[in-house]
Design goal:
Order of helices and strands: HHHHHHHEEHE
CATH superfamily of the largest domain: Cation efflux protein transmembrane domain
Shape: elongated
Number of helices: 8
CATH topology of the largest domain: Alpha-lytic protease prodomain-like
CATH class of the largest domain: Mainly Alpha
Largest sheet: 3 strands, mixed
Oligomer: single chain
Radius of gyration: 26 Å
Number of strands: 3
CATH architecture of the largest domain: Up-down Bundle
Length: about 300
């Protein structure tokens, strides 16, 4: 029987609204960049373009994640949200690096920027970004997809705020380099967050142990269960947000397979990893083995 592990249904309305707002902001910033010649606005438009593409991919991933599991894809498309967040983070890293290079060039040779239109477009973009933040903030921790979208929109809002500051400085002090300085600051804001998100999603794709789950503590606690003699081939990974999985071979006393205790031991092991640790592992698979079985295994593992 297939089980539905998808969690994408609740995300789609929020992502759809955020994507619509991002597309409107993108159009406004492209027009504003053409009219003002502002690097900060151009950079923020590039950032918003990355966001819009990322939100579109995230919306597709959320739709796929809602599909049920099949015999061919036993976890359904649950990992689609991780792939989408990884792609978003990679794009943001590229945008951030471009911003730094272009911004340094404009510091050396600053072009003239029209401060009035720049201020107007900056305010309009900030209002749109704040609307997106309101839409996404309630569910930003529910998945990698929404977390990536929320981080990008927050970065957009900070970028829009920087555009407003640059416009004011240019208007009052006639210091044209303010535009390049703000563009570089936007890049500095983008890079650390994108790097952290990329590292976390790559950890999931590499099937690293989920953050907050100490396998040594898990092993020690399993060994404390009655009739358990050894634990080996202990592995833990994460399919998607909120979906950690754990497998292990557990050696138990030979009599357990005769007196019917094996089933009770299995229940106790699964309850242990589901309830005892900060990261609750609802999907666990234990292979119970008699003492003599390990001698038959070709490659012993921890």
């Amino acid at each position: 029987m297939a089980h539905d592990h998808g969690t994408g249904g609740a995300e789609r309305p929020r992502l759809t609204v955020a994507l619509s707002i991002s597309v409107a902001i993108l159009v406004a910033e492209v027009v504003g960049a053409i009219l003002t010649g502002s690097l900060a606005l151009i950079v923020d438009a590039g950032h918003v373009l990355a966001d819009a593409v990322g939100l579109g991919v995230a919306l597709l991933a959320a739709t796929l994640a809602g599909r049920p599991a099949t015999d061919r894809r036993t976890w359904g498309f649950a990992r689609a949200e991780v792939l989408a967040a990884t792609a978003q983070a990679a794009v943001l890293l590229g945008v951030g690096l471009f911003v730094l290079v272009e911004g340094i060039g404009r510091l050396l040779d600053p072009p003239a920027v029209a401060s009035g239109p720049l201020l107007a477009f900056g305010v309009a973009v900030l209002v749109g970004d704040l609307a997106s933040i309101v839409v996404l903030t309630g569910a930003r921790r529910s998945s990698f997809t929404l977390r990536a979208a929320f981080l990008e929109v927050v970065n957009d809002a900070l970028g829009a705020l920087g555009v407003i500051v640059a416009a004011v400085v240019i208007a009052l002090l006639h210091w044209q380099r303010a535009d390049a300085v703000v563009a570089i600051l936007i890049g500095v804001l983008i890079l650390p967050r994108a790097f952290v998100l990329l590292r976390e999603t790559v950890d999931v794709l590499l099937e690293s142990t989920p953050a907050g789950l100490d396998l040594e503590l898990v092993r020690e606690h399993l060994l404390e269960q009655p009739h358990v003699l050894a634990v080996h081939d202990l592995h833990a990974s994460q399919i998607a947000t909120g979906l950690p999985v754990l497998t292990a071979h557990v050696t138990v006393e030979d009599d357990c397979f005769v007196d019917g205790r094996a089933g009770r031991i299995l229940d106790e092991l699964q309850a242990c990893v589901a309830e005892h640790f900060p990261v609750s592992v609802e999907h666990s698979t234990f292979q119970l083995e008699p003492q003599r079985h390990r001698d038959h295994e070709h490659t012993p593992h921890r």
